[in-house]
Amino acid sequence: MRKTAFLLVGITASLATLACSFNFLPLRTSIRMDKLETGPTISEDVEIPVPDSDIETSLEILMGAGELYVRPGAENALLQGTVSYNVEEFAPHIITENGYIQLRQGEEESGEYTFPDISGNVENTWDLLLGDEAMELILTVGASRSDIELGGLAIDNLRVTQGASDFDLSFSEANQVEMSTLRFTGGASDAELNGLANANARDFFFTGGAGRYTLDFSGDLQDDMYVKIEAGLGEVIIIVPAGTTATAEFEGTLADVDAYDDWRRSGDTYTLEGTGARITFEISMGLGSLQLRNW
Questions:
Q1: Domain residue limits, the chain
Q2: How far apart are CA 293 and CA 153, in angstroms?
């Protein structure tokens, strides 16, 4: 049983990021603060069947505070798993609407999302398995510790919004369909994204806040990938395996750029010689720092 003490400062820091993410939700949502109390821990099984419809499935996992674990392995279901919590208002709820499915922490009330104002030791652990059904996947997490493994699934569109949290995302195996777009928006946090070549994404749009971000493009790069990176005060580390063809160009002012290993610089353009498909980076940063590496 994992227990996590959540600080109000961490929760507050994620509000702005989460508020922005709600703008694109089919179910319009605003945020309010409620004072919540802890109680006995409850473990609850959750399951979402594969939709019986020709409409493309869009699955969102929305979690404000806790520990989130997602990996492949659901059998004959879109999602299976267990949620353990000791705050009554954290009970999981499933909402469906015209192909859109949302697994959320807490119940929607009059279009408002209840964001926790809590003290003491809080238990809120989601251990979830995803099935191999083709889907759009949306991950919206706040003050959470997240460990996400998506290798071998069939995700045709991925959107991640991360608040004040530690976030690990990996594709240990190739995505089984071409992903049209991968979007990641990070808050004041640390994040590691690994095996990004295996995501099989045409376009990757990354927006980072005042955090530390590691973007590892290892894996099987099947086709050309365009990567747009925008960051402010954070630290961004880009890792592209030796032998991969890559070009990185910069806009704006950069406080600190370091290129290592086989990266070569010519003005504001950095290149990596290789064979096969190409990764094209367009990078815009403020006063943050950037590292280009092979490993």
A1: 150-295
A2: 28
